[in-house]
Specification:
single chain; alpha/beta; five-stranded parallel sheet; two-stranded antiparallel ribbon; 11 helices; 7 strands; 51% helix
Length: 223
């Protein structure tokens, strides 16, 4: 079954280029294109794709708000496009529900790989990259919100699940977590799945964000 994709970018040549690359793949089908955030939301609602490739800066409705609406609406996953690797909007995009981001000068093979990875239910960023990114944005936020006491939101997690979440936020892979906890990778996958399900999170990126927002981990070290 093909991965159904909507491509949204206000630059026609960029949008057409991405669509051409993706449509050339046997397992990917571009079902619609959009030139602004509002069109992107409408296209997702009409075509029900598996993934929305969305520019982070869009006219009419910006990419952040479009991502928030699309992620709240259903199961379509969002992969953001940005010009700079430390775009000030990246953190907001991830909090809105996006599963990762790509630079607009991404190589052809990396674009295709990213679409497949995110459509399969994984986050795009490697755990260590995710940790550095979230730590950077949370540490230099102009007016950070008070951290929610971990005991409140995270009370639904077992001790093992909470420790797993701490290690995810610390940048560890499943294999590394398994070694630290002296358990099998299968057991770690179960813990990760339980963390995501119990907290209503989409993927590991969202788990990292939740770990920072609840105060389970803070920039510069673990709490």
């Amino acid at each position: 079954m093909s991965i159904r994709v909507v491509v949204a970018d206000d630059q026609e040549l960029v949008r057409a280029g991405f669509s051409m690359i993706l449509d050339a793949q046997q397992d990917i089908e571009v079902v619609a294109e959009a030139g602004d955030g509002a069109q992107a939301v409408a296209a997702v609602r009409e075509h029900r794709p598996d993934l929305l490739l969305l520019d982070i800066r869009m006219p009419v409705m910006d990419g952040i708000e479009a991502a928030r609406v699309v992620c709240a609406d259903g199961d379509c996953r969002v992969l953001m496009l940005t010009t700079f690797d430390l775009d000030d909007y990246v953190y907001d995009a991830l909090r809105a529900g996006a599963s990762g981001f790509l630079l607009k000068d991404v190589r052809r093979d990396d674009l295709v790989h990213a679409v497949r990875v995110v459509a399969a239910g994984e986050s795009l960023l490697a755990p260590s990259v995710t940790t550095r990114l979230i730590a950077d944005f949370t540490s230099r936020a102009a007016a950070p919100r008070p951290a929610e006491p971990p005991s409140e939101r995270l009370s639904v997690l077992t001790a093992r699940e909470r420790e797993t979440m701490r290690m995810i936020a610390g940048g560890l892979s499943n294999a590394e977590i398994a070694r630290e906890m002296v358990v099998s990778e299968h057991t770690v996958k179960t813990h990760v799945s339980n963390v995501l399900t119990k907290l209503g999170l989409r993927d590991r990126v969202q788990a990292v964000i939740a770990a920072y927002e609840t105060g389970l981990i803070v920039p510069g070290g673990l709490r």
